[in-house]
């Protein structure tokens, strides 16, 4: 990754974009905080959707398209509360 004028990489942009993408994916339906979403999905965003960074809409579309390849922790961030709650009810 290229360095910016401050001598740091754009990792902050990557992490923010990954967190925003997950938040935007379900309109904030997840109870997870942005930090939790970022921690859960940053690796997946870098691995599977690096071409889309920093475009939030493109990252979201990419991650939704590749949801079956997301880590379980990240995939859980894309589940709506109703969907995840329905799976646990008997």
TrEMBL record:
Top-level lineage group: Bacteria
Signal peptide coordinates: 1-31
Record key words, sorted: Signal
Name the record gives this protein: Cysteine rich repeat protein
Native organism: Gluconacetobacter liquefaciens
